[in-house]
């Protein structure tokens, strides 16, 4: 790269491979929901492939950055790329929240006879709309026996994620001041919070599935619950991997007070994940 010119990365196979791996995971997820356990194996294969591709792709970008190949124009490209990626994630979760609000605000009241489309109440005349929906209108579908108490494990996870955003901000501020020890320490705490969140959500899922009857087959409440919290959990796993990668780079001295956009991008992603969780806690668990 000469002065002022735009760096064009070498041809990379990672974007197409990542797309294929993501497609494999989505096909596996759909197959799992419809046809059972065979789909879970396909989904797991796709997830493993995505994680491997992320690791190798990160490696190549880190090498290019450390070789001094990126200039200010490339830095702007990274920032715009990350911003548009997070915007696409906002739209992703907006679709699932939209489905949740549509069911609660329109579909269930219509089935109960309310509004202009209340004639749909003729399908199940004895149905009474309520949320959480413990008694689906179709008697062939068994709703959950109970719902999760939002003031136990979900509240703990909320406190963990909110606190993790604070500790990550402390780490970022320390890095900007050239305090590498402080940046490293606070980032370790943030990664630990992310890992504990994942463990607690696993315990929560076990409790819901085994003891409360809250499964993917437990009517619309069960399906929306696992779609929203499950995809968010996947994002927490990805975010924790990103933060762990940044932690290794901080240990190796890859960042300085003025050149650390990779750290900033990881922080943007983590704060976004935290904001989504607050919405989930309020509209899935509490209200």
From TrEMBL:
Gene Ontology molecular functions: cytochrome-c oxidase activity
What are the UniProt keywords, alphabetically?
Answer: Membrane, Translocase, Transmembrane, Transmembrane helix
* Membrane topology summary: Multi-pass membrane protein
Q: What InterPro entries does the database record attribute to this sequence?
A: Cyt_c/ubiquinol_Oxase_su3, Cyt_c_oxase_su3_dom, Cyt_c_oxidase-like_su3, Cyt_c_oxidase_su3-like_sf, Cyt_c_oxidase_su3_a-hlx
Compartments where found? Cell membrane; Membrane
> Which residues span the membrane?
14-34, 41-58, 78-103, 183-203, 223-247, 268-286
Question: What SUPFAM superfamilies does the annotation carry?
Answer: Cytochrome c oxidase subunit III-like
In Pfam terms, one family for this protein is COX3
Q: Which stretches make up the Heme-copper oxidase subunit III family profile domain?
A: 2-287
Any GO CC annotation of this UniProt entry: plasma membrane
Top-level class of the enzyme under EC nomenclature: translocase
Q: Which Gene Ontology BP annotations are present? A: aerobic electron transport chain
Q: What is its EC number?
A: 7.1.1.9
**Family under the similarity heading:** Belongs to the cytochrome c oxidase subunit 3 family.
Q: Which PANTHER family match?
A: CYTOCHROME C OXIDASE SUBUNIT 3 (PTHR11403:SF7), CYTOCHROME C OXIDASE SUBUNIT III (PTHR11403)
Can you say what this protein is called?
A: cytochrome-c oxidase
């Amino acid at each position: 790269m000469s002065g002022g010119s735009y760096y064009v990365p070498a041809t990379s196979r990672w974007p197409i491979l990542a797309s294929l791996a993501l497609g494999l995971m989505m096909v596996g997820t759909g197959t799992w929901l419809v046809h059972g356990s065979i789909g879970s194996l396909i989904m797991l294969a796709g997830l493993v492939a995505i994680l491997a591709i992320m690791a190798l792709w990160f490696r190549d970008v880190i090498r290019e950055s450390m070789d001094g190949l990126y200039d200010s124009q490339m830095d702007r490209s990274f920032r715009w790329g990350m911003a548009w990626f997070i915007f696409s994630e906002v739209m992703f979760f907006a679709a699932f929240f939209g489905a949740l609000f549509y069911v609660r605000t329109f579909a269930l009241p219509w089935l109960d006879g309310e509004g202009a489309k209340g004639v749909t109440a003729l399908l199940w005349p004895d149905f009474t709309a309520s949320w959480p929906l413990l008694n689906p209108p179709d008697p062939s579908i068994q709703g959950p026996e109970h719902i999760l108490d939002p003031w136990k494990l979900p509240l703990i996870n909320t406190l963990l994620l909110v606190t993790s955003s604070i500790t990550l901000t402390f780490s970022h501020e320390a890095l900007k001041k050239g305090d590498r020890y402080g940046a490293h320490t606070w980032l370790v705490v943030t990664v630990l919070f992310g890992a504990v969140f994942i463990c607690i959500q696993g315990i929560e899922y076990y409790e819901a599935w085994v003891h409360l009857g809250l499964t993917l087959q437990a009517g619309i409440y069960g399906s929306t619950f696992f779609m929203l919290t499950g995809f968010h959990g996947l994002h927490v796993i990805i975010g924790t991997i990103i933060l762990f990668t940044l932690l290794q780079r901080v240990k190796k001295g890859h960042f300085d007070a003025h050149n650390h956009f990779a750290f900033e991008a990881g922080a943007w992603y983590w704060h976004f994940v935290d904001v989504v969780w607050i919405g989930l806690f309020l509209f899935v668990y509490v209200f």
